Amino acid sequence: GSKLSCALFNQFSTFLHWLVCKRSHNSNIIHYLDKFLFGGKYYDLTCQNTLLIFHDLGLIPGIQLFHLIKCSFLRCKVLAPHMTIIWSDLLPRLYWHNASKIDSARKDVNRNVKQYLKSQGGLVNRHPSITHTEKRLFRYDGTHLNQLGNSVLLSGLQGGLETLLLSIWDVCVS
Fold first, then answer.
1. N or C: which end of the chain has fewer CB within 10 A?
2. Which residues of 117-147 are buried (b: 16+ CB within 10 A; e: fewer)?
3. CA dist 24 → 34, 44, 55, 56, 110 (Å)
4. Cα-Cα-Cα-Cα dihedral sign, residues 3, 77, 158, 166
5. Beta-carbon neighbour count of residue 107 at 10 Å?
6. CA dihedral of 109, 111, 113, 117, whole degrees rounded to 10
């Protein structure tokens, strides 16, 4: 499980690196895990244009993103046919660039993935207690979860995994 996740993440970040280099015509981009570093000459628009490419990639329509996710699920099923895929819903944020479009796309993706996985025997972890109104769960930047938010997220993930295990195996819980 975890080795496959790392491999898929690495493939995605490598693809993202290639795509941004190609679209921005900036070959001075390096990435390490989920961090991207790039540079350009002072007073040159290279950095600004590269940032705009990253921003535009965040505006991928929800249906396109769903199809990319679905393709990833299908690849996983080919590699591990007996694997149960568990989707963890995309979480809301207190602050988004282009907020209404992105939050709407987030909801569409979550809904479409839920419907698709239901038809394929997969599971979805919804995280209903993490909402944009629960400001106490987010860090000052309004984007990332704080320690309490991470605890709520991890507790929800743990509960989802326990539910899966109880449904697969005849386990007594004491």
1. C
2. beeeebbbbebeebebeeeebbeeeeeebee
3. 18, 13, 12, 11, 30
4. negative
5. 14
6. 180
**Separation of CA 113 from chain center:** 12
Compute the distance between CA of residue 174 and CA of residue 172 in angstroms, rounded to an integer: 6
> Are 37 and 29 spatial neighbours (Cβ–Cβ below 8 Å)?
yes
Amino acid at 19: L
Write down the pTM of the prediction.
0.63
The whole-number mean pLDDT for each consecutive block of 10 residues of the chain, a chain of 174 residues, reads 54 72 74 60 67 59 78 84 86 73 82 92 90 90 87 89 76 53
- Give me the pLDDT at residue 104, please: 81
The position carrying tokens 């025997």 is 121
Return left, alpha or beta for 98; rule: phi > 0 is left, psi -120 to 50 is alpha, else beta: left
Q: What are phi and psi of 37, to 5 degrees?
A: -120, 135
